[in-house]
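Hi R.,

Here's the input for the zinc ion complex you asked about:
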Amino acid sequence: MTALMVENCPRCGRVYQKNVRNMCQDCMRQVDDEFQKCYSFLRLNRKATTEELCSATGVGIKQITLFIKDNRLPVIDYPNLTYACNSCGAPIRRHQICVPCGMRITAEVNELKEKEAKKPKGTGYYSRR
Ligand SMILES: [Zn+2]
Ligand SMILES: [Zn+2]
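And here is the predicted structure with zinc ion in place:
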């Protein structure tokens, strides 16, 4: 096995040898460094919010969000850590979207399904643009 699996690092764009973490060595080191910063700040400030953590450590909200979602910073341990709802940006602590957005999307999906069910089969619905 001499073939190297290489690809561009999604974080910095440099070519690197593919690995389980999907980023190059430099980025890995950087992320681990940022994680350590967050972790040591949270050890002393367990009730910090994401914003406080961000301004205290200089680590970006995006990266903190990834740590939370990866469970490297479990929200169970840190009661005020949140990240933004994918749909409206409201602070949430689990799933990808907040409860109201989840309900809205479910309602929309149901409505679509209903329309779909009422629609007589075999008509030229989709061909009309
Ligand atoms: Zn990189
Ligand atoms: Zn939302």
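One thing worth noting: The CA atoms of residues 62 and 95 lie 16 Å apart.

Cheers,
M.
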